[in-house]
């Protein structure tokens, strides 16, 4: 009996942990849903419209884009596909007439590039696999293609659903559930006077886990304030520095040391753009200024500027000014990856005073409400055509903004690190925060002085009085 209880408890813990891994407390309903709508039958199969909808509020799919895969239940083939393509044709030698687009038992599908001929396009296709976050750009959060499947069932009772769905976006991190038959999708004709519906519909839900995507964080956070001279940097090796040292590669020679090498390789990183070792070069080296240094690699391996934290992204939060009824913080995002431009980036902060945001300068801002009426989480992102592109490492590899927040005197204080965020996410990945005991605290000798505007006015009155006297 006791053994049975232990086994049951172990099973319950395993299930709980597996669910928790893919659960984001700041975006509890976030997922990517892949929907198959069978829109017509063919002599040996069906034509389906496949739509991928990103319902994640602040996590997008960046270049080189998504890859969707599955396993056929029988011996199906893809006769043709519009708006996407299979990466491999497979063995189609048994076909004597028309050759299918793909005969792979486990096809992998990728989006087409922009600018392909119109006869290969379909609505919401051909964006190189880039899909926006739903909270940032709902219209750009959808991707679609049309597929003609052969050697399959020709009725909704004989069609066998594909299995083992996978989604790379573009790296690992997504886990997809089984296909589930749902009520058929209903369509409106262009004149919106007639309703049609799919012959059969099934959906697949994919959720993201940062632990599956990378062994280490992909960003870190540093702090500073006007009331304390201490600058709290990102933790050393916040994004992993390996355990076997650096291997020289380039300007520093093979024996470049960790302290003076001009180019190093960190072999301890895991996934999320860190697989295969992370190479870094000094920002003032000749290679950092050479042609081709910004060319991405096919495997997505980064080339970082050598730092103590070894993170592609650093977010710096600075408490800048203190007014009577307001206070002001500055946010700076720096890209240390020479091979990566972040398009349509997002930054999410969890802070108790975000419920009183008065103005955000040079960034867009949208409050998130993951817990109903508790408004302590917000999303920042760039202005279109202005700073929505975070350039690669170098002089232009940063974006900055300032946030003005109204004080709530019932809860407001600068003491005990209150002015700093509790969590920071960049592009949906949680950043490594400094330890709480290192936050810049108020000096113990005296409380905050009067706001600058009040102090300046008092000084001016004192000068006038002295002159009159």
UniProtKB/TrEMBL annotation:
| PANTHER family on file | COBRA-LIKE PROTEIN 5, PROTEIN COBRA
Identify its protein family.
Belongs to the COBRA family.
Any idea where the COBRA C-terminal domain is? 218-242, 300-440
Task: Give UniProt keywords alphabetically.
Answer: Glycoprotein, Signal
Please, which domain of life does this record's source organism belong to?
A: Eukaryota
Q: Name one Pfam family in it.
A: COB_C
InterPro entries (UniProt xref): COB_C, COBRA_pln
Gene Ontology annotations for the cellular component aspect, listed alphabetically: plasma membrane
Species of origin reads Oryza nivara
- Give a yes or no for keyword Glycoprotein in this entry: yes
This protein's name? COBRA-like protein
């Amino acid at each position: 009996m006791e053994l049975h209880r232990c086994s049951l408890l172990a099973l319950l813990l395993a299930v709980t942990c597996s669910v928790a891994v893919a659960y984001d407390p700041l975006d509890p309903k976030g997922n990517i849903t892949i929907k198959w709508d069978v829109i017509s039958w063919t002599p040996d199969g069906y034509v389906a419209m496949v739509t991928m909808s990103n319902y994640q509020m602040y996590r997008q799919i960046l270049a080189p884009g998504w890859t969707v895969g599955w396993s056929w239940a029988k011996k199906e083939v893809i006769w043709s596909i519009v708006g996407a393509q299979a990466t491999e044709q497979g063995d189609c030698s048994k076909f004597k007439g028309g050759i299918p687009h793909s005969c792979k038992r486990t096809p992998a599908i990728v989006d087409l590039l922009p600018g392909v001929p119109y006869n290969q396009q379909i609505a919401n296709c051909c964006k190189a696999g880039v899909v926006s976050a739903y909270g940032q750009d709902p219209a750009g959060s959808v991707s679609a293609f049309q597929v003609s499947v052969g050697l399959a069932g020709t009725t909704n009772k004989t069609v066998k659903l594909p299995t083992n769905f996978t989604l790379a976006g573009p790296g690992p991190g997504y886990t997809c559930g089984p296909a589930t038959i749902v009520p058929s999708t209903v369509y409106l004709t262009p004149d919106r006077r007639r309703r049609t519906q799919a012959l059969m519909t099934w959906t697949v839900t994919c959720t993201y886990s940062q632990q599956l995507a990378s062994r280490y964080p992909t960003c870190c956070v540093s702090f500073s304030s006007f009331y304390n001279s201490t600058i709290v940097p990102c933790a050393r090796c916040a994004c992993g520095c390996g355990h076997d040292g650096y291997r020289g590669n380039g300007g520093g020679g093979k024996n470049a040391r960790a302290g003076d090498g001009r180019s190093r390789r960190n072999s301890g990183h895991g996934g999320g753009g860190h697989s295969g070792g992370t190479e870094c070069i000094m920002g003032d080296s000749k290679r950092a200024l050479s042609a081709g240094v910004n060319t991405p690699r096919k495997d997505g391996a980064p080339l970082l500027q050598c730092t103590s934290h070894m993170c592609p992204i650093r977010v710096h939060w600075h408490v800048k000014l203190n007014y009577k009824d307001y206070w002001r913080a500055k946010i700076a995002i720096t890209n240390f990856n020479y091979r990566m431009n972040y398009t349509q980036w997002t930054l999410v902060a969890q802070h108790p005073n975000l419920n009183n945001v008065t103005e955000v300068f040079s960034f867009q801002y949208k409050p998130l409400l993951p817990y109903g009426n508790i408004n302590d989480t917000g999303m920042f992102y760039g202005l279109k055509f202005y700073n929505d592109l975070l350039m690669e490492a170098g002089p232009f590899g940063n974006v900055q903004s300032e946030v003005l927040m109204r004080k709530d005197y019932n809860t407001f204080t600068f003491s005990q690190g209150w002015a700093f965020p509790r969590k920071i996410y960049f592009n949906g990945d949680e950043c490594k925060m400094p330890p709480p005991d290192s936050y810049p605290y108020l000096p113990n000798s005296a409380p905050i002085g009067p706001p600058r505007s009040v102090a300046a006015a008092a000084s001016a009155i004192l000068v006038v009085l002295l002159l009159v006297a």
